[in-house]
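Structure, all two chains, one model.
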Amino acid sequence: MDKINGGVTAPKGFQAAGLRAGIKEGSTDKKDMAMIYSEAPCVAAGTFTTNQVKAAPVKWDMHIVDSSNAVHAVICNSGVANACTGQKGMQYCENMAEVTADTLNIEKKQILVASTGVIGAQLPMDKITEGIKMLSSNLNADLSGGHDAALAIMTTDTVPKEIAYSFKIGDHTVRIGGMCKGSGMIHPNMCTMLGFVMTDVNISKELLTEALKEDIKDTFNMVSVDGDTSTNDTVLLLANGMAENPKITEKNEDYYEFVKALHAVNEFLCKKIAGDGEGATALFEVKVIGAKSKEQAAVLAKSVVTSSLTKAAIYGHDANWGRILCALGYSKAEFNPDLVDIYFESKAGRLKIVENGMAADYSEERATEILSEDEVTAVCDMKMGECSATAWGCDLTHEYVSINADYRS
Amino acid sequence: MDKINGGVTAPKGFQAAGLRAGIKEGSTDKKDMAMIYSEAPCVAAGTFTTNQVKAAPVKWDMHIVDSSNAVHAVICNSGVANACTGQKGMQYCENMAEVTADTLNIEKKQILVASTGVIGAQLPMDKITEGIKMLSSNLNADLSGGHDAALAIMTTDTVPKEIAYSFKIGDHTVRIGGMCKGSGMIHPNMCTMLGFVMTDVNISKELLTEALKEDIKDTFNMVSVDGDTSTNDTVLLLANGMAENPKITEKNEDYYEFVKALHAVNEFLCKKIAGDGEGATALFEVKVIGAKSKEQAAVLAKSVVTSSLTKAAIYGHDANWGRILCALGYSKAEFNPDLVDIYFESKAGRLKIVENGMAADYSEERATEILSEDEVTAVCDMKMGECSATAWGCDLTHEYVSINADYRS
């Protein structure tokens, strides 16, 4: 498996475009619409927010992913989330698919829709329609097409997030590329994590769906910037088969080769989202090892990575192990506090902070040195079993509060 | 039922003291030890942290409350939490009880112990021992005794928190008074909510325990400053019977009179804790009405009151209803988003923000006016039933981050 350049247009047969349609208020230059198109029809898999308040495009995509075996395109806008917009919002979402289908000369049930931005506002359909037409004439199979799309889905993200890998299935080279946006909320009504992963692998819908469902547990579901699960969260995985590998229809070697590449793409995107979380100065990774089960490890890791007190301590480069032990303790996962060891890790080194639930003999200065890097890891060894899990988040900063306390005026 | 002056020494037969033993580092004047003593033996009830990581005094008190029917005193220190301190910490906790028992000439199993402060550090037993001796000779039945105790348990609290009520049972005047401290963490390892409620009511241990267990659900368990459940949380309720009312042994009128007073004390203390949360500029109250069950209402209210995004918006005086609807949505409690109405309330007035899950026609200026008070309430009407619940929290501020990011050096 090799890392290659580009993002969603790296796989064979995918084109993309991103441009400004004028949906984002204020900013005069920010792109706000993206389109991804596959020459060949795709089997599609998706995972969506568990929030009971679901945005219109989430409801639309859940239906399309479920019912269609020939998805051709994804149309996405940033600036308005089309969430809490009632029947009218649902109609507008369908209109987005219709206009996209007309311009691309395909059917609306072959179109997936995604929106991110202000909750409660209706989409400016005139701008959306105009944007879709411009996008279709700007579709581009080069890396630049994918890059423009990655720029167009950004909200408070400070950097575009895209990645691609290639791997071999027999003599066939298979490619997989993805892009995503983080939970940006600089405009106090914005929320959403969107992920789009395209691949030219030839695979059955059943296995594509299972591969995504399984990998999400270890990647996107292990990310938390502020514990607020949005109304729009969506991850879409499209496979158009143009790599022409023998179709993957069972969990053979080929399947696991693909899963490995899918995981590499998802993990990269997740770490990018966490490290670029609102106001973040550092990526905070929590590794729980020695757990009784993978589920237990995941619950413990997420409890620590979402602890406001721990996140604030990471911002302060403070080896505040008491808060980590405290967060493990209220996670509801059962363990023996008197067994726990805790380490801090970063480029600057590794240090044992806690041994058997009590302070280890360590230097605060050395700990602060390790915690001053822009990627820090807390390793919690439960010493109860062989299972592990990793969660990604970021520190809690003054900037986070500033971003989210701002008036919408 | 009448509000009366004072706190834990308002009920008959209770004495208290608070002073500086030198446990809190740096500060030269902060009191850090408190003692409460009852002339007559008390029946005691207690509720304790659900965190699996339990401080030594929590383990001690759980045992005493369970096994003793003649509790005489509470000894408390701030500055060191005696949490994550292993066997030695457990021994020190027992020593605190022993020294207190000796100086008061009672038995150690009649003593309840509470600590709050740095996690992982051992108690300075020389200072503790000296402090206990001073406290015993300073015990005072006047309001000042209770007030000194309320001051001595403070950490980052900006104000002491005490309250007292009296009510009648037949011709007998019964008094109940309490004090508490909030979850202070200015020293980055500190955490704890401590509550002490004393009453001279004559009641059986069974009913005292049930009264506390039931009321906690609507009061202390509905408070959240930052979602981090500490290792030391403790609420103790002692009744010495000196009001000489006919002993309450069944759920009669007298019992419910007492429960009413207990609730008044607990609710007051909870609102004080929330409004005085770390860095808080406002008390944020969330009322969920029209829910199917009380349990559902409580889950929904707590989800909103703990949402970082909502708390930051409250800090910004921003009517950010999308975040409230979002927090209701990920609470796991089932409801119909298309029915929800949301109002903001404060001294400045009341405004409907959301109607049937969508933006109501309201003025942002008016909303900001209402949200600019130091006590603001969000009312969420689920329109699904008759049940309701209220949760208390505070806004998320720059000061909260500053407090909790500080180096411990």
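Chain A has eleven helices and 16 strands.
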